[in-house]
Amino acid sequence: MRIILFSILLGCLLIACTKEVQIDIPGYEEQLVVDGRIETNGFPILLLSTSQNVYTTTSLATYLNSIVTDATVSVNNGNITLQLQLFLLADLPLESQKRVAEMLSLELNQIAFLPIQVYSTTDESLLGEVGKTYQLKINQKGKEYTAETTLLPPVALDNVYWKPEIDNPQFGVCWAKLSDPANQYNAYKWEVKLITSLPNGSPKDKLFRSRGNPFFQDKFFDGLTFEFDTKYPEKDTTYPSGFKHNYRLGDSLVIKLSRLDEPVFNFFDKKIAQMQTSSNPFSTPVNIPTNVSGGALGIWAGYSPWYDTLYCVQ
Fold it and tell me: DSSP assignment of 110-124, as one string?
């Protein structure tokens, strides 16, 4: 009897503590999405689309239907202002095609089949130059959006070398030594391109590749010199277990270390954090910042790359 009475009292208490919670979810409002970049010795590239309702099915078709082609876009480099034109991907210069493929995380031969139009130019007076600030202006449906990014002086690595694994000297990792300039903000992006020749004589990679979060800043190592190791972003299933991301003895790779300004780093760092935790119901929501004013989403990103070639030899 006591157990029954206790259960009834407990149930009453739980009911008494119940409170109806109402959450007002704001209505969906379509926004312009900017995905733009310019790097040293490269032409400006801009993909424009519209944001999608959270309940919309995510697919390539949905993205293609959201592409914006009715905007007027211009870029100013401090000396001249040029209006960007719409290009089909196949009509872009080869290096611009490669950058678009990297932006979309696709292979070079895949983007040729996409009916996407890109805002860009082939006017060499607008090639990216270190030290210049590039101001972007977009006019679309009566609204104006602006952004700017600066191509900062690149930072060179002190040294890069290949170190074989003790367990299997045929495979190893890439080591790099970086001396971060002191008393200034520095943010970086690490990319690699494996140029080891295939049997047909062509290089293994046509594009630069990255793994996980390739962006990092000097918040905790300002002015310090340190070494770090990296592996190949892609998995080679023909390699032995435990070495599928290693570089092999005899490999050759191009290292690309790009410097970027703080707003660009903040955008990609938060974007990748959101992507990595999006399936976790207990993760903290992330607000992705933007350097585009006027109510748009996305980024206008400047990259100042430094390159080196590493040969995997002992």
Answer: HHTT---EEEE---G
CATH class of 159-260: mainly beta
Q: Is 66 helix (H, G, I), strand (E, B) or coil?
A: helix
- CATH of segment(s) 32-151: 2.60.40
The residue among 266, 273, 303, 292 whose CA lies nearest residue 48 is 292
Using DSSP, how many helices (H) and how many strands (E) does the chain show? 5, 16
* Spatial separation of the C-alpha atoms in residues 173 and 243, rounded to whole Å: 10
The pLDDT confidence band at residue 274, using thresholds 50, 70 and 90, is confident
Three-state secondary structure call for residue 91: helix
Helix, strand and coil in the chain, % to nearest 5: 20, 35, 45
Computed over every residue of the chain, the mean pLDDT equals 90
The per-residue pLDDT for 5 is 47
Q: Provide mean pLDDT across the span 38-58.
A: 88
| Apex 40 CA angle, 112 and 217, nearest 5 | 100
Q: Which residues lie closer than 8 Å to 85 by C-beta, 6 or more apart?
A: 119, 120, 121
- Report the percent of the chain where pLDDT is more than 90: 78
